[in-house]
Write a structure and sequence with these properties.
Length: 201
C-alpha cells in the first residue's frame, strides 16, 4: 500500500486542515518523506475520498457510487484507517449491524430450509435473495433497508420462515434489534459543519 492512505498520512493532512500549500511551504522533510514521491496524488486522494464520504453521508449518491467508493477505500487503507473514514458516515456502523443480523439468519438457513409459507420454492431460492440483500446493506443501500423493514414485519418473510423451521423465539430477538437499528438510521441527522469533513481528531 505504498501510495495508499494510512493513519500517519491522515494526521499530517489533518494538521494542515487539508491545505496542501501548508505542507509545501513548511520545510519539514520528515513529513514529506511520509508521502514519498506521491505527496500531490495522495493528498488529492484523501481530499477526494472525504468529499465522497460527505456525499454518501448526505445521501446524494447512488448505490453503485457508494459501493465503488467504499470498495476502493477498503483497498487503499488498512482496517484502522478505513474505520476513520467510515466513522464519518453517521449510519455506516448501524448498517453493518443490520448486515450482521442478516448473516445470522443466513447461518440458520440451508438449501433444505422450509420456505414455502414465505413464498419461496426452497431455501436455495431464499438464500439468493438474502445474499443480495446482505451485499446491498454492506454498502448502505436505503432502498434495501426499507425492504427489510417489511421482511421483518409480523407474519412477513422472516417470521414465516422462523415458524416453519423452529427458530421463532430467536427471530423475535433479531427483529427487535432490527427495529431499533432501523429507527436509529432513519433518525440520523447530517452535521453540516464543513470543517468536520477533513478533521479526523
Amino acid at each position: 500500500m505504498k501510495n495508499g492512505i494510512n493513519i500517519e498520512k491522515l494526521k499530517i493532512y489533518n494538521s494542515y486542515g487539508g491545505d496542501i500549500d501548508g505542507i509545501c511551504r513548511n520545510n519539514r522533510p520528515i513529513e514529506k518523506a511520509v508521502f514519498g514521491d506521491s505527496l500531490d496524488n495522495t493528498w488529492c486522494l484523501i481530499t477526494n475520498k472525504l468529499q465522497d464520504i460527505e456525499l454518501i453521508s448526505k445521501r446524494l449518491v447512488s448505490y453503485e457510487y457508494k459501493k465503488n467508493v467504499l470498495t476502493e477505500l477498503e483497498e487503499i487503507t488498512n482496517k484502522e484507517t478505513f474505520k476513520l473514514f467510515t466513522d464519518k458516515i453517521p449510519f455506516y456502523t448501524d448498517f453493518q449491524k443490520v448486515r450482521q443480523i442478516l448473516e445470522i439468519i443466513k447461518s440458520w438457513t440451508t438449501d433444505e430450509t422450509d420456505t414455502v409459507w414465505a413464498g419461496y420454492d426452497n431455501g436455495k431460492e431464499f438464500l439468493i435473495d438474502l445474499n443480495a440483500d446482505i451485499e446491498k446493506i454492506k454498502f448502505c443501500d436505503f432502498e434495501t433497508l426499507d425492504k427489510l423493514n417489511m421482511e421483518f414485519a409480523p407474519t412477513s418473510t422472516y417470521q414465516e420462515i422462523s415458524l416453519s423451521n423452529g427458530w421463532s423465539e430467536d427471530f423475535l430477538k433479531l427483529a427487535e434489534q432490527f427495529d431499533k437499528l432501523y429507527e436509529v438510521i432513519k433518525k440520523q441527522t447530517i452535521k453540516e459543519n464543513k470543517r468536520e469533513w477533513w478533521k479526523f481528531w
